[in-house]
Amino acid sequence: MTLRFSLIIPAYNEERLLPRLLDSVAVARSCYVQPEAIEVILADNASTDRTAAIAAAAGCHVVPVAKRVIAAVRNGGAAAARGELLCFIDADSQVHPQTFAAIDAALRRGHCVGGATGVTLDRWSPGIALTYALFLPMVWLTGMDAGVVFCRRRDFEAIGGYDETRLVAEDVAFLWTLRRLGRTRGEKLRRLTTAKAIASTRKFDEFGDWHYFPLIVEGIGHLRRRGATALTDRYWYKPNR
Prior knowledge:
Blueprint: E1 5-11, H1 18-31, E2 38-44, H2 51-57, E3 61-64, H3 70-79, E4 85-88, H4 99-109, E5 112-116, E6 119-121, H5 126-142, E7 149-152, H6 153-158, H7 170-183, E8 188-191, E9 197-199, H8 202-207, H9 212-223, H10 230-237
Parallel strand pairs: 1-2, 1-4, 2-3, 5-8, 6-9
Antiparallel strand pairs: 4-7, 5-7
């Protein structure tokens, strides 16, 4: 059987939250017309906990990726994929039951190069809600969103996958490049807001519900650099887990 979907999960020490993601994936697979046409790949980024064992026990194809760059982890999972369509989801998230059906429908309708499902959050507060609202204008203007990111495998290969020179914002750069490819064919990025993923708020739990605002200036400065910085380590690569 030709696989329709490869769902790729980049993960580093995710034993606490990975099981709830895999439970949600199992539900989404059962809601798709051909559950057996979906493979799940766990790209294990040198985890020191039970992440790989949990994924293997759940039937995932575990792919070890040693390079501690999130773009390389996504690419490592994609290199092992056999599906026609590639999907990427963070290990601390949860997917909507209709994820695969919604993506399939969007791509079969045509004029769609790929896109993302969008997200809601697993808890809310005034600070979190204002942070969420801060990003909405950019999402509306560009069509670029978070959640389950998807595209055809041939298009992923055409644009060279994720940029491994970027330690962060590789997901934004990827969608921007995919968007440019789509424009050459009259295709757009699509936001599948009826199948939103649930994103974790653990960064807010750790740094505070208002922490994005003092980080904005530091973050803008960081986006101009591609090397490691104190912000990169503190916020992405040396997590408190």
